[in-house]
Amino acid sequence: MKLLEERIKRDGIVLDHDVLKVNSFLNHQIDPQLMLQIGDEFAAAFEEDQVTKIVTVESSGIAPALMAGLALNVPVVFARKHKSLTLVDHLYTADVYSYTKKVTNTISVDQKFLTAADRILIIDDFLANGQAVTGLLDIAKQVGCEVAGVGIVIEKTYQQGAQLIKDAGIKLVSLARIDSLADHQVHFAPED
Ligand code: 5GP
Question: Does position 71 have pLDDT exceeding 90, yes or no?
Fold first, then answer.
């Protein structure tokens, strides 16, 4: 997605440890116009896939997932990282190791929001080693629902997440694909 690549080039900051900081439009401050277009791109990519629900993880997945849900006209469920008085039991849970925070969170989804009749589209902001997506696939397995695909805003192709998803035979669509962050520069993958 050209517009997204241009925005990453303009505003992305490469931190050490292979982390791209995009908190001026995606991870902290959010650009609603860009998110709207991201939602439209995901909707175009998955319009034939009979998606009934979008599933993401809080918090950075919510903005692109919501816009994809708007464009596909389906509800959006976000897995929560913390229990609360309103989220106690009847949960699907999975453990997810966070690439950026270096801690393991147990993510939870209330059982009433996913059923075996669903065909879910998993959306997330970044794909690195695939831990977040694997956690959501684990939840999908517990639910017994089908996975229509995975939509990622920014994929880092040199980490193993994409291969995991492809090996599982799941459709993967990434709107920007980064081959390397060498020399603190963003190097995009050539178009397929
Ligand atoms: P994974 O679970 O695929 O290893 O990592 C994906 C998650 O880690 C994303 O949900 C995102 O929050 C975070 N993440 C991974 N790599 C990056 C990165 O380069 N920049 C930012 N801002 N977040 C990242």
Answer: yes
